[in-house]
TrEMBL record:
Enzyme class: transferase
Organism per entry: Planktomarina temperata RCA23
Cleaved signal peptide residues: none
This protein's UniProt keywords: Transferase
Protein name: Glycine amidinotransferase
One of the GO BP terms on file: creatine biosynthetic process
């Protein structure tokens, strides 16, 4: 028992009881300048097209108010909360291979940090403006390294992000949703296979199994890199036709507890990829509809942040306060719902799952898919 007190970092899945988490900040968040990977994701009809720069201070203050309230709500439940140290996001990113005018922010730690057991892995990232985003979390990584003798701080190889990483077909202003759906169904995404690329938010942890979305932000080489990096895990590539802008798995496929996953009804997992779940009696159910017809202003994400929930334990889940249909469904599924007001922070990088990263959940690495 004496040395468990020193364990700071431990998390093997998305649902075991949460004890320690990082909650992001909206400080100094910028709408980044145009670049290939970002342009491919900003919807063609979005109010964000063609504008960039620091977000208005009053929206930053409002988002921080909500993030701070969320952090206190978690703390009141006995969960330890750490926050990033925001760097100056107005500083351009310049490497020998590319340069871009500003950075992004540190609201969504989930995109950058992947916790697997006692390891926290900094993702390669795939947007130029997010190349240095790990720096916001380095003070925490240093602290965990000093406090926890078993903590493994890892960083995936920094990608070069030259133009060779992006398909020029996606650079066109007007592609149209129909063509986008055809391309994504054929797994023709904006990122090429030039070098390994992944965002941490494309990975879901199911104990021994890691499920990774192949899409705009994660390529097959990135998935292969994860496979070699985690030799004791089984790494599964999935993709979700029906999503014209596939970035990050966490508004598409949401495990709630062993045996139960919500799937976005517009982005269903293809039949041939369901086998591992079916063979092991996991249920995949359609998520409820979002409560909104459109995302809030200047937001990258879709209305499906409704299902971007944070599971606190297998019976308790945080759902955004305005997402009444999602809350109702959770209730029917036997989950206790904790309402969290976060919608005015969505534009800064996502919902309740995005704006958090696991540090410690109880439990050990289990095999939830013994039937192969
Ligand atoms: O549906 O726009 C958002 C995911 C953010 N981590 C979407 C995906």
């Amino acid at each position: 028992m004496s040395d468990t007190g020193k364990t700071i970092v431990n998390s093997w899945n998305e649902w075991d009881p949460l004890r320690h988490v990082i909650v992001g900040r909206a400080d100094d968040c910028h709408i980044p300048a145009e670049e290939p990977a970002l342009d491919a994701k900003v919807p063609e009809d979005s109010d964000m097209r063609g504008q960039w720069g620091r977000r208005p201070q009053e929206t930053i203050d409002r988002a921080n108010e909500l993030l701070n309230n969320f952090a206190s709500q978690l703390e009141k439940r006995g969960i330890r909360v750490d926050r990033p140290t925001s760097i100056d996001h107005s500083v351009p990113v310049e490497t020998p291979d590319f340069s871009t005018e500003s950075q992004f922010g540190c609201m969504p730690p989930r995109d950058v940090l992947l916790t697997v057991g006692s390891e926290m892995l900094e993702a390669t990232m795939s947007y130029r403006c997010r190349w240095f985003e790990y720096l916001n979390y380095r003070p925490l990584m240093q602290k965990y390294f000093e406090e926890d003798p078993k903590f493994r701080h890892e960083s995936a190889p920094k990608p070069r992000l030259t133009d060779a990483d992006y398909h020029p077909d996606y650079l066109s202003e007007k592609i149209g949703v129909e063509k986008r759906l055809k391309w994504t169904a054929e797994k023709f995404f904006v990122t090429t296979e030039e070098e390994p690329l992944f965002d941490a938010a494309d990975v879901l942890r199911f104990g021994r199994d890691l499920v990774v979305q192949h899409g705009f932000t994660t390529n097959l080489k990135g998935i292969e890199w994860l496979r070699r990096h985690f030799p004791d895990h089984r790494v599964h590539a999935v993709n979700f036709p029906g999503d014209p802008y596939p970035i990050h798995i966490d508004a598409t496929f949401t495990p709630l507890r062993p045996g139960l996953i919500l799937n976005n009804p517009q982005r269903r997992l293809p039949d041939e990829q369901r086998e591992m779940f079916q063979k092991n009696d996991w249920q995949i159910v359609d998520s409820a509809q979002p409560a909104h017809n459109a995302p809030p202003p200047l937001c990258y994400s879709s209305t499906w942040l409704s299902m971007n929930v944070l599971v606190l334990d297998p019976k308790t889940v945080c759902v955004e306060k305005s997402e009444v249909y999602q809350a109702e469904q959770m209730d029917k599924l036997g989950m206790e719902v904790v309402e969290v007001d976060l919608r005015d922070a969505y534009a800064f990088g996502g919902g309740l799952h995005c704006c958090t990263a696991d540090v410690y959940r109880e439990g050990v690495c289990e095999d939830y898919f013994p039937n192969r």
